[in-house]
């Protein structure tokens, strides 16, 4: 198919995507406040950004913030060139029945509540099969901590999916679910996770992280997994060879000091294990979240727009060379803000999802699915070259010169969730010879068993 919504030349795409040459960037930086100038110069020299410096970056504004975003974009291009990825996947929440009482959560229900759900294995497998038939490479599976779940449930669910779909990647079970399953099975985390891997688990979402700070966690929920346990479970997963993502849920009762410390903690873990594939910042969705509705005076209604920019940009700077994939969550921000983040250090749009419920039940209104064809247009709308990847960042298809098949979304959209959001993107013209910069060979992954290729690309000069 002929590509739609694209730019005519590489130079045009670079200018449009907000990227500056190193010379221009250095010039711009020389005009900034002394403090920010020194930190950005350090980042460009690949020196480590400390927690204190991270806090300073989180507090910057105006020209300083513009330069921070451009520095993040520059580092992103050093690693990834023009490419921005997405995964074709389906989110399957096998149950929303949960009594853990996390205050930020709008998803959990009691078993007698209207809308309470507990899918059978057959139903989960049927959803996975339907996803496979629509081209999904991954199912992302998480659920409530249902009181009647056996410890063996998680393993048996993986086996049931793999029996029907041996090549489907299972990205499943948050550290909180691992804690629950391991406790019910009276097994160590290492043994419990190894058992899940034998049953077909391919990777784990690094959710349940929220803010990795004891005081904040106690206010978000008294019972939830401690910071220490989250770290222990993530380390155990990495040690037995299971990759995980990393997340941060921000914009509620937290602030810059928590964010910088959280990112530094993830970086420390990565230095030891290399097991994180990506960071996914999750903006707090407030409107149907008890945390906010019960305390609107004390809890913020999600991060400000500036904080969203800063989170993605500072994460790029603090994690550079360690966690080089920064994913924006379109379910939290919507397609247009997600597109803008591609100019603040982000190189990934995450999953097409097909069924989103966690954000929707907390009040987000960005729908359940963005189809591959739409993902490609959003990415081109930021002057970047789209590619489909699998969960561990291997290229499945590059859309420099073609488009994926158009597909109707799995769940019909309401009128306000139709494709009209794509019209807000700039009118960009057909492109010839797109994608000559920054391309990887199809088999090359930016996450190869914990060793990322950032330093190699940077050593080659990166984007100029
Ligand atoms: O439907 C959802 N899927 C979520 N997913 C799935 C995600 O969008 C993608 O499937 C993968 O991260 C793609 O690599 C997550 C996966 C993670 O590893 C970490 C966080 C999330 C968060 C969500 C979420 O809020 N809603
Ligand atoms: C599965 C993950 O989804 C995230 N999550 C749950 N509820 C919300 C919300 N209201 N806003 C943003 N993220 C949320 C949490 O980080 C959880 O661990
Ligand atoms: S966040 Fe997870 S564990 Fe907490 S209440 Fe919601 S579903 Fe339950």
What key attributes describe this structure?
18 helices, 10 strands, 5-amino-6-(D-ribitylamino)uracil--L-tyrosine 4-hydroxyphenyl transferase activity, rSAM_sf, binds iron/sulfur cluster, globular, 464 residues, iron, binds 5'-deoxyadenosine, four-stranded mixed sheet, binds the ligand O=c1nc2n(C[C@H](O)[C@H](O)[C@H](O)CO)c3cc(O)ccc3cc-2c(=O)[nH]1
Task: Describe it.
With 464 residues, the protein is of the alpha/beta class. It folds into two domains: 4-80, no CATH class; 83-424, Alpha-Beta Barrel (TIM Barrel), CATH 3.20.20. The chain contains 18 helices and ten strands. The protein has helices at residues 10-16, 22-30, 34-44, 51-58, 62-80, 121-133, 153-164, 175-185, 189-198, 214-220, 227-239, 256-273, 290-293, 305-319, 330-341, 358-361, 372-380, 454-459, and strands at 83-87, 89-92, 138-141, 169-172, 201-203, 244-250, 276-283, 348-351, 385-389, 395-398. β2 (89-92), α6 and β3 form a beta-alpha-beta unit. The longest helix has 19 residues, at 62-80. The structure holds ligand FO1, 5'-deoxyadenosine (5AD) and iron/sulfur cluster. 5'-deoxyadenosine is lined by residues 104-106, 142, 174, 207-208, 210, 247, 249, 282, 284-285, 289, 358, 362.
């Amino acid at each position: 198919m002929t590509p739609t919504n694209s730019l005519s030349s590489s130079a045009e795409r670079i200018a449009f995507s907000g990227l500056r040459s190193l010379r221009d960037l250095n010039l711009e930086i020389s005009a900034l406040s002394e403090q920010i100038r020194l930190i950005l110069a350090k980042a460009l020299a690949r020196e480590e950004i400390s927690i204190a410096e991270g806090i300073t970056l989180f507090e910057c504004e105006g020209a300083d913030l513009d330069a921070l975003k451009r520095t993040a974009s520059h580092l992103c291009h050093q690693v990834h060139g023009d490419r921005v990825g997405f995964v074709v996947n389906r989110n399957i929440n096998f149950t929303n029945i949960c009594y853990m009482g996390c205050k930020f959560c709008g998803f959990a229900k009691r078993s007698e509540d209207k809308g309470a759900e507990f899918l059978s294995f057959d139903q989960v497998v049927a959803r996975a099969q339907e996803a496979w038939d629509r081209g999904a490479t991954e199912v992302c599976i998480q659920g409530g901590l249902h009181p009647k779940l056996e410890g063996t449930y998680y393993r048996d669910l993986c086996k049931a999916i793999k029996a029907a779909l041996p090549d489907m990647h299972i990205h499943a079970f948050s550290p909180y679910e691992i804690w629950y399953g391991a406790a019910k099975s009276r097994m160590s985390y290492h043994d419990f996770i190894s058992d899940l891997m034998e049953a077909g688990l391919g990777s784990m979402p690094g959710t349940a992280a929220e803010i990795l700070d004891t005081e904040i966690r106690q206010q978000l929920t008294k019972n939830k997994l401690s910071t220490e346990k989250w770290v222990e479970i993530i380390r155990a997963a990495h040690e037995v060879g299971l990759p995980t993502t990393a997340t941060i849920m921000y914009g509620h009762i937290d602030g810059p000091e928590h964010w910088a410390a959280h990112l530094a903690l993830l970086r420390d873990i990565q230095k030891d294990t290399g097991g994180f594939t990506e960071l996914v910042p999750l903006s707090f969705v407030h409107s149907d979240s008890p945390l906010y509705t019960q305390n609107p005076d004390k809890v913020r209604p999600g991060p400000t727009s500036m904080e969203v920019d800063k989170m993605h940009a500072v994460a790029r700077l603090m994690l550079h060379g360690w966690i080089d994939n920064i994913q924006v969550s379109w379910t939290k921000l919507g397609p247009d803000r997600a597109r803008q983040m591609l100019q603040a250090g982000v190189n990934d749009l995450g999953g097409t999802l097909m069924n989103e419920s966690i954000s929707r039940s907390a009040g987000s209104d960005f729908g359940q699915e963005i189809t591959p064809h739409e993902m490609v247009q959003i990415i081109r709308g930021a002057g970047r070259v789209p590619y489909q990847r699998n969960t561990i960042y291997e290229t499945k298809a590059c859309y420099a010169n073609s488009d994926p098949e158009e597909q109707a979304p799995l769940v019909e959209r309401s009128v306000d969730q139709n494709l009209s959001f794509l019209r807000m993107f700039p009118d960009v013209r057909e492109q010839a010879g797109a994608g000559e910069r920054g391309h990887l060979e199809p088999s090359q992954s930016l996450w190869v068993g914990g060793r990322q290729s950032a330093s190699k690309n940077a050593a080659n000069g990166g984007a100029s």
